[in-house]
C-alpha cells in the first residue's frame, strides 16, 4: 500500500502531554489559523491584534505528520515549504529551526503554548526562520524523524514537531488574510 | 497516477504486489541478479530501466502533501555507479501527467531533483556513498 499521512496539531494539556491531538487535514479551509488562543477551531475569535508598538505573537502551532497507512518499506527525508507568498507588511510566520521530539510513543517535545510569547520561549526551540523563505526549490529539511532507524514504517509513527508562529507588527494592515499554502514532502519506498 | 514497480531478473521477476495482494519490499529485490526495473500503471508499462554491470538501482516515490491532504507524486528511478572513486548517476523523474525528466547530479536547491537518503542496498559497498 502507498503510505498515507494526516497532519496533526497538538494543543492544550500540559508540557510533554498535549490535551488534544487534532487531525487538521479535514478542517477548514484553512486547516490552521494563527490566533491568540490555543485551539484548532477555524473561526474569527481571538484574532491577532495590531500593536501600536512592539510585536504581538500568536500561540505557537506544534504540528507533525502521523502515518495512517504504512509504506511497504519506509518513509523518510521529510521537508517543509510554503508558497513563498507571505501575509503582507508587518506580518511574519516563523518556523522553528529545531524539531522537538514526537514519536508514536513519546511527546516530550510538546511545550504548552505560552500566551503572547516569542517561539524561542518553547523549551526546545532556540532559533527560528521566516517560514516564507522556504519554498519548493529551497525547502526546510525537516521535521526530522525520531522513530527507530530515523524512518517511518508503521501506522501511528510520526515526524517530530514542526513549530510555527505568527508575529504581527504595528505596520500590519487590518482585515482577514488570504490563505497561504504549507506543504510537506517526503520520500517513500 | 499510482505506479507499481517490478524487478526483472534474467529468469523471473519480483512484483511489488503478489497476486494474492501481499507486498514485497523494495529491499527484497535481489540486486545481484537484477536485469531491469519497471514502473507500471496497472498492466501498462510506463517506464523501464535496464541496468548494466555496476549500476545500482535508485528508486523513490516522492510525495508533496499540503495541509489539506492534496498530494502530488513524482517517481525517481535511475542508477548510480562508482567510477574511479566517484559516484556518477542518471535519474529519471516520472511526473503525474506522464512526462519524464532526466537529470544527473543531485540538485539540493530544486523542487524534485535532490538526493534521497540512500539505503545500504543502494550504496557502494566500499564506502558510505
Description:
The complex is a heterodimer of chains A (189) and B (129). Chain A is mainly beta. Chain A contains no helices and 10 strands. In chain A, the strands form 2 sheets. In chain A, strands 1, 2, 3, 4, 6, 7 and 9 form a 7-stranded antiparallel β-sheet that branches. In chain A, strands 8-5-10 form a 3-stranded antiparallel β-sheet, with no helix packed on it. In chain A, strand 1 (4-11) and strand 2 form a beta hairpin. Chain B has 129 residues and is mainly β. Helices cover 0% and strands 45% of the residues of chain B. Chain B has strands spanning 4-8, 13-15, 36-41, 44-50, 56-66, 71-83, 86-94, 100-103. In chain B, the strands form 2 sheets. A 4-stranded antiparallel β-sheet of chain B has the order 2-1-3-4, with no helix packed on it. A 4-stranded antiparallel β-sheet of chain B has the order 5-6-7-8, with no helix packed on it. Chain B is globular and about 45 Å long. The chains are: A mainly beta (189), B mainly beta (129). The A-B interface holds A 1-3, 5-7, 24-26, 28-32, 72-74, 76-77, 136-138, 181-189 and B 2, 16, 23-27, 59-69, 109-111, 116-117, 119. Strand 10 of chain A pairs antiparallel with strand 5 (56-66) of chain B, so a sheet runs across the interface.
Give the termini distance of chain A in whole angstroms: 10 Å
The structural class of chain A is mainly beta
State the share of residues found in helices of chain A, binned by percent. under 10%
What value does the Rg of chain B take, in angstroms?
Answer: 15 Å
Oligomer: heterodimer
Residues in helix, % of chain B: under 10%
Number of helices of chain B: 0
Can I get a quick summary?
The complex is a heterodimer of chains A (about 190) and B (about 130). Chain A is mainly β and about 190 residues long. In chain A, about 0% of the residues lie in helices and about 30% in strands.
